[in-house]
Design a protein that fits this description.
Layout (H helix, E strand, L loop, with lengths): L5 H16 L20 H13 L3 H14 L5 H12 L3 H14 L4 H13 L3 H14 L4 H14 L2 H14 L4 H13 L3 H11 L7 H13 L3 H8 L5 H18 L13
Helix pairs in contact: 2-3, 2-4, 3-4, 4-5, 4-6, 5-6, 6-7, 6-8, 7-8, 8-9, 8-10, 9-10, 10-11, 10-12, 11-12, 12-13, 12-14, 13-14
Length: 271
C-alpha cells in the first residue's frame, strides 16, 4: 500500500492541532497580580505560574513568570516558563526568542532545548528540530521525549522508516509510553502499513492510560483502510454525529488522495 506524502501528514496534524487548540482558555481573561512576591523564592514563583497555566489562565501565568524573570535575571527557568506559555497561546515568535534567551544563559537547559525544538515543529521547520533532538539524545540517550520528537520530525521530513526506528528506541527506554506508541501507530499508517497500525492501536486503546486521542487515531486508521463502519463506531464514543460525519468525509478524502485521485480539500469548518 503506498505511503502518504508529508502534506497528507500535515493535513492530519493540522486537523488534530485545531481540535486541541479549541479547548484553550481565553487569552483575554483579566488577570490579577499576587501580593508579596518580591521575597518569594524562585521555585515557589515557578509553581504558582505553572499552576495558573494548568488552570487555563495563561495571562496570570505570564504575569508571575515575568515577576520571576525580573527577580532572578540569571535564571533560565522563568524564561522557559514564559516561552512555554507563549507557545501554548500561539505566540510562536516570542516563544522562540525566549527559548534562545534561556539557552544563552544555560546552553544545556533541557526544557529550553525541548521547547525550541517544539517551536521549530509548530512553524514547519522539522530539520532544525531534528538537529536539536539529536543533540539532546547525545547528551541524554534515555530521554523518551527526545526520541518521540525525533520520530515526529523524521515523519514530517518524510523518512518514516527512520521515524519508526526512533519511536521503537524510545519504547526501549519507556515500553509503556502512550505518546510513543501513538506516534508509532500514526507513522505506520502514514507509511502505508495500515494492518500493523490497526493492530498497534487496538492494543493501545486497551491501556487504561490511553484516551480519546488514541481511540480517534484508531478510527482514522480504520477510515484510511476503508472500514467506515468500524471508524464510525469508534468515533461515536467521543464525538457528536456531525463530527463523526465530518471525520468520515476527511477519511474518504485522504484515502482518495493516497490513491492519486484529483480531489479538492473540504471547506474549513467555522467555529
Amino acid at each position: 500500500m503506498p505511503p502518504f506524502s508529508v502534506k497528507y501528514l500535515w493535513l492530519y496534524l493540522v486537523l488534530m492541532l485545531g481540535a486541541a487548540l479549541s479547548g484553550c482558555a481565553d487569552s483575554d481573561k483579566p488577570h490579577t497580580d499576587t501580593p508579596s512576591q518580591a521575597s518569594t523564592p524562585l521555585p515557589t514563583l515557578m509553581g504558582m505560574a505553572s499552576a495558573a497555566a494548568s488552570a487555563g489562565d495563561p495571562l496570570n501565568a505570564i504575569s508571575v513568570y515575568e515577576r520571576a524573570r525580573k527577580l532572578y535575571p540569571g535564571a533560565p527557568e522563568p524564561l522557559v516558563g514564559l516561552a512555554n506559555t507563549s507557545l501554548a497561546i500561539g505566540r510562536t515568535e516570542k516563544a522562540e526568542a525566549l527559548y534562545r534567551e534561556a539557552l544563552n544563559l544555560d546552553g544545556t537547559q533541557v526544557e529550553a532545548r525541548h521547547g525550541l525544538a517544539r517551536a521549530f515543529m509548530v512553524t514547519d521547520r522539522p530539520a532544525p528540530a531534528l538537529d536539536l533532538y539529536d543533540a539532546l539524545l547525545r547528551d541524554h540517550p534515555q530521554d523518551r521525549r527526545a526520541w518521540n520528537g525525533k520520530g515526529v520530525a523524521l515523519d514530517l521530513i518524510g523518512d518514516h522508516t527512520a521515524a519508526q526506528e526512533a519511536y521503537r528506541l524510545g519504547l526501549k527506554e519507556a515500553p509503556g509510553d502512550v505518546s510513543l506508541r501513538n506516534n508509532l501507530g500514526l507513522s505506520l499508517a502514514i507509511s502505508g502499513d495500515l494492518e500493523a497500525a490497526i493492530a498497534l492501536f487496538q492494543k493501545l486503546i486497551a491501556d487504561p492510560a490511553a484516551g480519546l486521542r488514541e481511540r480517534q487515531n484508531l478510527a482514522l486508521v480504520y477510515g484510511l483502510a476503508g472500514n467506515a463502519p468500524a471508524a464510525a463506531r469508534l468515533s461515536k464514543k467521543d464525538l457528536s454525529s456531525d463530527q463523526v460525519r465530518h471525520n468520515l468525509g476527511v477519511y474518504d478524502l485522504l484515502r482518495a488522495m493516497r490513491a492519486g485521485e484529483n480531489v479538492d480539500a473540504p471547506p474549513a469548518k467555522s467555529e
